[in-house]
Amino acid sequence: MREAGCWEVGGAPVTLLKIISKERELKNIFFLSVLLGMSSLYAQAPAEPPPQLQQFDFVLGDWTVEGYFTTKKGQQAPFKADYVVQSTHDGWASQADMTIPYGDKIVFHGTSYHAYNPRTEKWVYKYFWKNGNDWLDFEGEFSEGKMVFVSAETFDGRTLRISFVPVSDNEFEYIADLSEDGGQTWKERDTYYRCTRKTKAMVE
Predict the structure, then answer these.
(1) Which residues are bridge partners to 134 per DSSP?
(2) 8, 59, 66, 157: which one has the fewest Cβ atoms less than 10 Å from its Cβ?
(3) 90 located within any domain
Protein backbone atom coordinates (compact mmCIF):
# COMPACT_ATOMS: atom_id res chain seq x y z
CA MET A 1 0.00 0.00 0.00
CA ARG A 2 1.39 3.42 -1.08
CA GLU A 3 1.67 5.93 1.76
CA ALA A 4 0.11 9.38 1.49
CA GLY A 5 2.20 11.95 -0.33
CA CYS A 6 4.14 9.28 -2.19
CA TRP A 7 4.45 8.92 -5.99
CA GLU A 8 6.39 6.69 -8.30
CA VAL A 9 8.90 8.24 -10.72
CA GLY A 10 10.52 5.73 -13.08
CA GLY A 11 9.29 2.92 -10.85
CA ALA A 12 10.94 4.39 -7.72
CA PRO A 13 8.83 5.78 -4.85
CA VAL A 14 9.26 9.54 -4.27
CA THR A 15 7.81 11.23 -1.20
CA LEU A 16 6.72 14.87 -0.84
CA LEU A 17 9.45 15.42 1.75
CA LYS A 18 12.08 14.29 -0.74
CA ILE A 19 10.77 16.74 -3.34
CA ILE A 20 10.80 19.64 -0.87
CA SER A 21 14.28 18.69 0.29
CA LYS A 22 15.51 18.65 -3.31
CA GLU A 23 13.99 22.10 -4.00
CA ARG A 24 15.71 23.53 -0.95
CA GLU A 25 19.00 22.04 -2.05
CA LEU A 26 18.69 23.62 -5.49
CA LYS A 27 17.80 27.01 -3.96
CA ASN A 28 20.82 26.85 -1.67
CA ILE A 29 23.07 26.07 -4.65
CA PHE A 30 21.58 29.01 -6.59
CA PHE A 31 22.05 31.53 -3.75
CA LEU A 32 25.58 30.25 -3.13
CA SER A 33 26.49 30.77 -6.78
CA VAL A 34 25.07 34.31 -6.65
CA LEU A 35 27.08 35.12 -3.53
CA LEU A 36 30.25 33.71 -5.06
CA GLY A 37 29.67 35.78 -8.18
CA MET A 38 29.19 38.96 -6.15
CA SER A 39 32.28 38.19 -4.07
CA SER A 40 34.30 37.80 -7.25
CA LEU A 41 32.93 41.09 -8.59
CA TYR A 42 33.75 43.07 -5.46
CA ALA A 43 37.15 41.39 -5.13
CA GLN A 44 38.24 42.93 -8.43
CA ALA A 45 40.45 45.98 -8.17
CA PRO A 46 38.42 49.15 -8.83
CA ALA A 47 39.10 50.81 -12.15
CA GLU A 48 41.10 54.00 -12.12
CA PRO A 49 39.11 57.16 -12.89
CA PRO A 50 39.64 58.22 -16.53
CA PRO A 51 42.13 61.11 -16.92
CA GLN A 52 39.41 63.23 -18.54
CA LEU A 53 37.87 63.73 -15.08
CA GLN A 54 40.69 66.12 -14.34
CA GLN A 55 39.31 68.46 -17.01
CA PHE A 56 36.68 69.69 -14.56
CA ASP A 57 38.82 69.80 -11.41
CA PHE A 58 39.07 73.57 -11.62
CA VAL A 59 35.53 73.93 -10.19
CA LEU A 60 36.23 71.84 -7.07
CA GLY A 61 36.15 73.86 -3.86
CA ASP A 62 34.17 76.35 -1.83
CA TRP A 63 33.25 79.50 -3.74
CA THR A 64 31.67 82.92 -3.38
CA VAL A 65 29.41 83.81 -6.30
CA GLU A 66 28.49 87.22 -7.69
CA GLY A 67 26.54 87.71 -10.89
CA TYR A 68 23.14 88.25 -12.47
CA PHE A 69 20.31 86.46 -14.23
CA THR A 70 17.95 87.91 -16.82
CA THR A 71 14.30 88.20 -15.80
CA LYS A 72 11.35 87.50 -18.11
CA LYS A 73 11.10 91.25 -18.61
CA GLY A 74 14.64 91.33 -19.92
CA GLN A 75 16.18 93.00 -16.87
CA GLN A 76 19.42 91.89 -15.22
CA ALA A 77 18.82 90.91 -11.59
CA PRO A 78 22.05 90.79 -9.55
CA PHE A 79 22.57 88.12 -6.89
CA LYS A 80 25.17 86.65 -4.54
CA ALA A 81 25.43 82.99 -3.60
CA ASP A 82 27.52 80.27 -2.03
CA TYR A 83 28.75 77.45 -4.27
CA VAL A 84 30.36 74.23 -3.05
CA VAL A 85 31.68 71.54 -5.42
CA GLN A 86 32.96 68.23 -4.03
CA SER A 87 34.53 65.18 -5.64
CA THR A 88 32.55 61.99 -4.94
CA HIS A 89 32.67 58.25 -5.66
CA ASP A 90 36.47 58.08 -5.49
CA GLY A 91 36.88 60.77 -8.12
CA TRP A 92 34.44 59.38 -10.66
CA ALA A 93 31.94 62.23 -10.23
CA SER A 94 31.37 65.57 -8.53
CA GLN A 95 28.44 67.22 -6.83
CA ALA A 96 27.79 70.97 -6.73
CA ASP A 97 25.40 72.85 -4.46
CA MET A 98 24.48 76.51 -4.88
CA THR A 99 22.48 78.36 -2.24
CA ILE A 100 21.28 81.94 -2.21
CA PRO A 101 20.71 83.18 1.34
CA TYR A 102 18.36 85.99 2.27
CA GLY A 103 18.56 86.88 5.94
CA ASP A 104 18.34 83.63 7.87
CA LYS A 105 16.59 81.78 5.00
CA ILE A 106 17.73 80.01 1.84
CA VAL A 107 15.66 81.37 -1.04
CA PHE A 108 17.32 79.22 -3.72
CA HIS A 109 18.99 75.81 -3.69
CA GLY A 110 20.28 74.10 -6.82
CA THR A 111 22.23 70.84 -7.04
CA SER A 112 24.12 69.43 -10.00
CA TYR A 113 26.03 66.22 -10.70
CA HIS A 114 28.87 65.91 -13.21
CA ALA A 115 30.63 62.83 -14.57
CA TYR A 116 32.61 61.75 -17.61
CA ASN A 117 31.11 58.91 -19.69
CA PRO A 118 33.95 56.87 -21.27
CA ARG A 119 31.51 55.10 -23.62
CA THR A 120 30.36 58.31 -25.31
CA GLU A 121 33.52 60.32 -24.52
CA LYS A 122 31.20 63.08 -23.33
CA TRP A 123 30.53 64.77 -20.04
CA VAL A 124 27.15 64.33 -18.32
CA TYR A 125 25.65 67.15 -16.28
CA LYS A 126 22.37 66.75 -14.36
CA TYR A 127 20.88 69.75 -12.60
CA PHE A 128 18.04 69.95 -10.10
CA TRP A 129 16.74 73.05 -8.39
CA LYS A 130 14.38 72.96 -5.47
CA ASN A 131 12.45 76.05 -6.50
CA GLY A 132 11.48 74.55 -9.85
CA ASN A 133 11.28 70.92 -8.67
CA ASP A 134 12.62 69.77 -12.01
CA TRP A 135 15.65 68.14 -13.61
CA LEU A 136 17.68 69.40 -16.54
CA ASP A 137 20.01 67.06 -18.45
CA PHE A 138 23.08 68.27 -20.33
CA GLU A 139 25.88 66.73 -22.37
CA GLY A 140 29.18 68.42 -23.03
CA GLU A 141 32.91 68.39 -23.56
CA PHE A 142 36.05 70.30 -22.65
CA SER A 143 37.27 72.31 -25.60
CA GLU A 144 39.35 75.44 -26.15
CA GLY A 145 40.12 75.75 -22.45
CA LYS A 146 36.54 75.64 -21.18
CA MET A 147 33.82 73.14 -20.30
CA VAL A 148 30.67 73.57 -22.42
CA PHE A 149 27.36 71.78 -21.83
CA VAL A 150 24.22 71.90 -24.00
CA SER A 151 20.82 70.87 -22.68
CA ALA A 152 19.57 67.53 -23.96
CA GLU A 153 16.01 68.86 -24.07
CA THR A 154 14.44 72.29 -24.28
CA PHE A 155 13.87 74.41 -21.19
CA ASP A 156 10.60 76.34 -21.56
CA GLY A 157 10.96 75.78 -25.31
CA ARG A 158 14.54 77.05 -25.31
CA THR A 159 17.92 75.33 -25.53
CA LEU A 160 20.41 76.15 -22.80
CA ARG A 161 24.18 76.26 -23.27
CA ILE A 162 26.38 76.52 -20.17
CA SER A 163 30.09 77.32 -20.17
CA PHE A 164 32.49 76.98 -17.24
CA VAL A 165 35.54 79.09 -18.00
CA PRO A 166 38.63 78.97 -15.73
CA VAL A 167 40.12 82.42 -15.16
CA SER A 168 42.81 81.46 -12.65
CA ASP A 169 43.39 78.88 -9.92
CA ASN A 170 41.06 80.90 -7.71
CA GLU A 171 38.39 82.08 -10.14
CA PHE A 172 36.12 80.77 -12.88
CA GLU A 173 33.16 82.13 -14.85
CA TYR A 174 29.75 80.60 -15.42
CA ILE A 175 28.04 81.72 -18.63
CA ALA A 176 24.56 80.59 -19.69
CA ASP A 177 23.31 81.29 -23.23
CA LEU A 178 19.77 80.72 -24.52
CA SER A 179 18.53 79.70 -27.96
CA GLU A 180 14.93 79.77 -29.17
CA ASP A 181 15.67 78.15 -32.55
CA GLY A 182 17.34 74.90 -31.54
CA GLY A 183 20.84 76.32 -31.28
CA GLN A 184 21.06 78.18 -34.60
CA THR A 185 21.35 81.54 -32.85
CA TRP A 186 22.09 82.35 -29.21
CA LYS A 187 21.26 85.07 -26.72
CA GLU A 188 24.57 85.20 -24.92
CA ARG A 189 25.09 85.74 -21.19
CA ASP A 190 21.45 85.38 -20.20
CA THR A 191 22.93 84.37 -16.86
CA TYR A 192 26.45 85.17 -15.76
CA TYR A 193 28.41 84.88 -12.56
CA ARG A 194 32.00 84.77 -11.37
CA CYS A 195 33.13 82.36 -8.67
CA THR A 196 35.97 83.29 -6.28
CA ARG A 197 37.56 80.52 -4.24
CA LYS A 198 37.16 80.50 -0.46
CA THR A 199 39.10 77.32 0.32
CA LYS A 200 41.07 74.60 -1.41
CA ALA A 201 39.29 71.83 -3.29
CA MET A 202 37.59 69.17 -1.17
CA VAL A 203 37.95 65.50 -2.04
CA GLU A 204 35.80 62.69 -0.64
Answers:
(1) 129
(2) 157
(3) yes
Closest CA to 165 of 188, 182, 199, 135: 188
Position 24 scores a pLDDT of 56
1 inside domain: no
Q: What is the pLDDT of residue 33?
A: 54
Residue 13 pLDDT grade (very low, low, confident, very high; cuts 50, 70, 90): low
Beta pairing partners, 128: 111, 135
Are residues 94 and 189 both part of a single domain?
yes
| Core vs surface per residue 19-38: b (16+ CB within 10 A) or e | eeeeeeeeeeeeeeeeeeee
CATH of the domain at 143: 2.40.128.20
Range of the domain at 184: 51-203
Angle (CA) 135-140-144 rounded to 5° is 145
- As to burial, measured by CB atoms within 10 angstroms (0-12 exposed, 13-18 middle, 19+ buried), residue 12 is exposed
Domains of the chain: total: 2
